[in-house]
Each structure stands twice: as structure tokens, then as C-alpha cells.
Amino acid sequence: MAERTPRRPRRRLIAAAALATGVLTGVAACSPGPSGGSATSAKTSGPVATDPAKAGKVTLTVWDQNTDPGANASTEALNKAFMAKYPNVTIKRVSRSFADLKTTLKLALSSANPPDVVQANQGYPDMGAFVKAQLLQPVDRYAKAYGWDTAFPSQLLDLNRFSPDGKTWETGNLYGVSQTGEIIGVYYNKAKLKSLGLPPPSTLGGFETALAKAKASGLQPLSYGDADKSPGIHVFGVVQALAAGKPEVRKLVFDEGDAKWTDSGTLKAATTLRRWADKGYLGSGFNGKSKDQAVASFAQGKSPFLVEGTWQSAVLAPKMKENVGFTALSPATGQPPLTQGGEGLAWSVTSKSKHPDVAAAYIDFLVNKNGMKVAASHGNLPALPPADYKPTPGSVDADILTGWKAVSEKDGLLPYLDYTTPTFYDTLTAAVQELTAGHLTPKAFTSRLQSDYSSFQNSR
Hints:
This protein has 19 helices and eleven strands. By secondary structure, the protein is α/β, with parallel strands linked by helices.
């Protein structure tokens, strides 16, 4: 076994109280890049020009994955406002789904004419790979110029840090900042639950009981479609958080201690998800149905439950009004909720951008106080909730803010599983599809994940 690179202990994933209330109050030596030159080019040093109006005529190409209605609406609004404020700047927006972005972004970054600003997913598969290939530039000087280094808690900034060689996450240079916060939870149809005589679920056991009762009554319990791959790992991640607990999940994702993906907690989660599939709780043909189809099915009242991210509130609220609720589950009664989440994809400046200062000014426009307010006004959960952000009582957005506070204040926020290794997203998404389709046993499922994890550990 190859000797592993020592890694510093992780701090908490999130500054809980600061994020929950909106009140806000953290470097490895550089190593040569692949070409043998410094990992930091001339573009990443020197004074920062913070006024795009003085930059002359600029076309800024921006790639994002904000295809969901709320995220799309806020992005369009902010882009329009930025160009109105700076008529000399034209934003050329390229928007891709998350799945498409994962398959096309590296090619775009490696091209002769890469975009200036991109949304880069945290962790080893994307941001780490881009940093290793010198496709993103550090934004530490911009963080200082615009105050991101003080506005954002260090725990959020650390999720967007990498050593210059892309080998060590959560330390080193800063490669972006995020606009939105997010958690995965259970959306529920209030009328459906009332007809079943059920309260909103609060624990994993209670949720499973509700799924069984819905099935027995002739309802499809859960709207679910995994053709896009990410829904499957979100559902599994929620179950794993509750079955395995936060110490085990954090050790696995952050590569701390001697945790293994074959341990009892992850095996229990895999067994639970397989049981849901076998009992018909996930429906039929789910691996061929898209995320959007599942969300639409839930909005149409075809099932009482949907396990999805907070970003779907902007889709569901206009269609379901006061009939949709949201909750984050606890392992057991009396315990605080645990779930996956954190922050949205980081807004990053590419290494080959011809206009890095304008690119950084654009990012600041998205993440400053006004940008956060605009995001919230379109049904998004801002990473730094403004002090005056008060959703309508009884609305799903109010439920989401309550859930966000409950999770973050009790340190119940766990990292997304695909952060784990450079290849873990592909390994995990395929394995979940095979597990739920009955092609992998829970034990074989965990062994496959451990194989990927061990290969990464041995390569460090």
C-alpha cells in the first residue's frame, strides 16, 4: 500500500449559528503545476480593478447549471441588472443541467476559448480535477478585495479550497464562492397526508411507516426518477446520514480515520433503499424517469412524498401553493435532524479568462447582499440569509428556512457523497441504479464503493 499524504483534521462543515441566523462574523505551500511552472500565474497577483465600467468593451462568457426555475430566474435577473449597471459588459450565458455540466465543462475549460466564469462542483471529481489541470485560478485576492473572506464563514470558504496540485481538499487556495445554501429533505403533500391520517414525518422510521401506509392505500408512495443519476445519490445520502450517523459519513467523505464504506451504517442504508425498491415505494421504471418527471408527478398529486433538494421549492410552490411542506428527518425521536447539504456550486474564475477582474466583479454581484436578496426573492435559499429574509408563514420556503436552521444549528449538515474521490460520482451513481434495480446486493454495493475509496487512498 502506498503511503498516504497526511491530511489536517477537518473543522465543522458549516458555521451553523452564523448561517442559520444570517449573522456573520482558514494554506499549503505551492507546488509546481504539470508544466513545471508556478501554479499561480501573473493574472492571480497584483492590484484588483473593481470597476467593470473602466474595463472597456467586454464579453463575459459564463457557464452555469442553474436550470431549475428559481435558480434560472434569479440568474437571469442578476445578469440583466449587471449589464444595465455596466453597459460595456455583455454576458454570454451558457446554461447546462448538472449532469450535462459534469460531462462538458472540462472540455470547455480545456478549449482554445474557455469561458470566463463557471460553476464548479466542490470536491475531488470536479474542482480538484480542474485545479490539478490549472483550469481555474485562485481568487484569494478577490476575496480580500470584495470582503468574501470575512462575509463567508471559513467553513464555507474551505469547501472551495484546494492545494495547488488538486490533491488536498479544504486547504490551500480559494477557487470560488457560492451564492446558495441547500439541504436535501422530504417534500410532502399536506392533503395526501391528511387523507392518510399521517403527520409530516420527522424520523427515518416514521417516514418508512408512512411509505408503507401510502402503498397499502393504493398510492404511489414516493415520486422518484433516477435517469439523471443525482436523485439516487441524494436519496441514498439522506438514508445513509440517518442510518450511519454524522461521524461515520464525515470520516468517509473527508478521508479521516479508519471508516469503510462496508461498515454497518452504510450497509444498513443500502439495505433500506433496496427494501424500498423491492416493496414498490420507488414505483416502476424509475431508472428511466428523469428528475423533472418525478418532481412534476409529485406536484400533480400522484404521490405524497418527494425526496429532493431545497432548490425545488421554486418549482413546487407555484403549482402546489400552501399544499406542499418540507422537512428534514432525524435518526430517532428527540434527536436533531441530519441530512446532506451545504452550499451550491462555487462560482469560479477560469485560468485563461481574458477579463479576470470583470469576472470577479460579476461573481461579487451574484454573492453580495443584493445578490442574496434576489436569489431569495426567486425561491432560492441564500448561502448567507439576509437578516430581513422572512418567508411567508406556512409556506414551503418558511419550512425550508426552519429546516435549514434546525440542521445547521445542531451541526447536522453532512457533505455530499460524490465529493469523496475523483471517480466517486460515477461509481456511486451507477451503483445506486444497480442496487435499486436489483442487480447489486447491498453488500456488493458497499464493496464497490469501498473499492473506489481504497484505490483513491492507495494513490495518495
